[in-house]
UniProtKB/TrEMBL annotation:
InterPro entries: DNA_bind_recomb_sf (IPR038109), DNA_bind_recombinase_dom (IPR011109), Resolv_N (IPR006119), Resolvase-like_N_sf (IPR036162), SSR_resolvase (IPR050639), Zn_ribbon_recom_dom (IPR025827). This is Resolvase. Residues 157-312 form the Recombinase domain. Gene3D superfamilies: Putative Large Serine Recombinase, Chain B, Domain 2, Resolvase, N-terminal catalytic domain. It holds the Pfam family Recombinase. Residues 9-163 form the Resolvase/invertase-type recombinase catalytic domain. SMART domains: Resolvase (SM00857). GO terms for molecular function: DNA binding; DNA strand exchange activity.
Length: 560
């Protein structure tokens, strides 16, 4: 810290956050900071801003990063912000940055309350941390109280319906459940069939064939659920033993409510919620025999069968070179691209090294039972790409379409940005007029609100106007041979540990879809390859920057 307090160097940092009410724009924050610095006779030497939308973790904070770097280089003595919470996304980030700045002898000031001290930061973080704990505690306590009152904590399990009860004060309490006889029958059947050795696939397939509706999935936000269309799947029945999921592991069926099996944590890097298994001692169980569906014998028979399967798997794993369940699933350049022609679902690697309809193998109604060896499928698709998909003529047509589309797109860009700039100029003129009027007007409140409106509009518009890219050169016509060469090379390096991944990505970009259709004869599979001309042209041109090829690009799709 400089001893001369009259000539400190100031860095301003502003971050706009939509989560705040009456949020000041980052430019406004900088202006206020500037004023604060001037009042203290300091010199502003650096300005940093981030206009990321609050809560959107993927938006980097380039401004804040830059501030950190310059702080380490000793470029300034004071950081002025609107409030300390601008300095990070959460308390620990703010505290960390504050400590770092302090270490470099840099003070943090807010223009509303001046210099921030260790005490202020400490109080701020302890208050926030305590609040978080309080909230977590309350949620847990609430769930536990519900269980104690024999109400359901969380969602409804298969086999039960909600059973609203009138409370003493005449209100309807919807937290209670009772057994649904039809569904309970299915639960018992699943337990019995599994215990006598039927596989979850068999069980699921039979239920689906009989038209028994499966458990409702928890609805995703905005998703409309169609009644009666939920199918039984292996995962619904089997779940994960360790997590207590799946019909076969739900302890409610033996009359025990289980609570606090999992906790949800927010990943600080991505902001996503992830489930973690709680240790056994934290899991709480409360008996409620009114809800028992399977007998203790049925429950134990399933446990016995599971133990047998586990033992068999272990034996197989130790006897074989690798255990296919544990081995990392191989990825293929076709993963996620091949679709089942019968059900429209994904075709993936099933049975070790064969492609097949995932729906069929997970027990849905799909009848497509064909599988095909992985290398055969990949070879067919590769040779299809090389030999049949790209003929000289199809390249010609695609090229022409591409070049025309590029020109049209470019013209559209020009038109849009011209219109945008005109509008921007008109807003600027209006803002200027208002600024002039404010000097003379006795009551500026009306003008001020109009000014705010215009500024907002201007900001949005300025963001919408993208710089016009350089016109795209037309592609040349002679790359059919080049394309063949490149695909061949990609095919050759696919298994290569160093470049396989990249080659695989490139190949994927050439394929729009592959249809996996059961053929006439037993075991026969017909594959339909739909090439993506955008990817094909990009690869052939040896140019990865052909990102302009959007959905809008109409081009011939070739089939084989
Ligand atoms: Zn299928």
């Amino acid at each position: 810290m400089k001893t001369n307090r009259h000539n400190l160097r100031v860095a301003l940092y502003g971050r706009f956050s939509t989560s705040r009410q009456n949020a000041a724009s980052s430019a406004d924050q900088l202006r206020a900071g500037e004023k604060y610095a001037t009042q203290h006779g300091w010199t502003v030497v650096a300005r940093f801003t981030d206009d990321a939308i609050s809560g959107a973790y993927e938006h980097g904070r380039a401004g804040l990063q830059e501030l950190k770097q310059q702080a380490m280089l000793g470029q300034f003595d004071v950081v002025v912000v609107e409030s300390v919470d601008r300095l990070g996304r959460n308390v620990s980030e703010v505290t960390a940055l504050y400590r770092r700045l302090k270490f470099h002898g840099i003070e943090v000031h807010t223009y509303t309350s001046g210099k921030q001290t260790d005490l202020v930061i400490a109080i701020m973080s302890s208050v926030a941390e305590a609040q978080l704990e309080e909230i977590a505690h309350k949620t847990r306590r609430g769930a536990k109280a519900n269980i104690l009152k024999k109400r359901s904590a969380g969602g409804r399990a298969y086999g039960y319906v909600s059973d609203p009860k009138l409370t003493a004060d005449g209100k309807l309490d919807k937290g209670h459940q009772k057994i649904c006889p039809e569904e309970a029958e299915i639960v018992r059947r699943i337990f019995e069939e599994y215990a006598i050795g039927k596989s979850p696939i068999e069980i699921a397939r039979k239920l689906n064939l009989e038209g028994v509706p499966g458990p409702r999935r928890p609805r995703k936000k905005g998703e409309i659920q169609v009644p009666g269309c939920s199918q039984w799947q292996v995962i619904t029945i089997l779940g994960h033993a360790s997590r207590g999921t799946g019909i076969l592991h739900n302890e409610l069926y033996r009359g025990w409510r289980v609570w606090n099996q999992r906790m949800y944590l927010k990943n600080p890097d991505t902001g996503k919620r992830v489930a973690r298994q709680n240790p056994e001692e934290d899991i709480e169980r409360i008996e409620d025999q009114d809800l028992r569906i399977v007998t203790e014998e049925q429950w134990n028979a399933v446990r016995k069968r599971e133990a047998v399967i586990r033992a068999n798997m272990k034996k197989r794993a130790s006897g074989q070179e690798h255990n296919f369940r544990d081995a990392r699933r191989p990825t293929s350049f076709l993963s996620g691209i091949i679709k089942c022609a019968a059900c429209g679902g994904n075709v993936g690697l099933v049975l070790r090294d064969r492609w097949g309809c995932l729906g069929h193998h997970r027990g849905t109604n799909c009848t497509n039972n064909r599988t095909k060896r992985r290398d055969v499928v990949e070879q067919r698709i590769l040779s299809g790409l090389i030999d049949r998909l790209v003929t000289g003529e199809s390249i010609e047509i695609a090229l022409q379409a591409y070049n025309e589309e590029c020109q049209a797109l470019y013209a559209q860009w020009l038109r849009q940005s011209d219109a945008g700039r005109e509008k921007l100029a008109s807003i600027d003129a209006q803002i200027n007029n208002i600024m002039k009027a404010i000097e003379f007007a006795p009551d500026v409140s009306v003008l001020a609100s109009r000014l705010t409106e215009l500024s907002k509009e201007r900001k949005a518009l300025a963001e919408a106007i993208k710089p016009v890219p350089a016109p795209m050169p037309n592609l040349q016509h002679d790359f059919s041979a080049l394309f063949h060469e490149r695909v061949k090379n990609l095919g050759a390096v696919i298994g290569d540990p160093d470049h396989g991944r990249e080659a695989s990505d490139k190949l994927r970009s050439l394929i729009q879809a592959v249809e996996f259709r059961p053929g006439q004869a037993r075991g026969e599979v017909s594959l339909t390859l739909v090439g993506d001309m955008a990817g094909i042209l990009a690869l052939a041109a040896g140019n990865d920057n052909l990102e302009v090829m959007t959905e809008a690009v109409v081009c011939p799709r070739n089939q084989m």
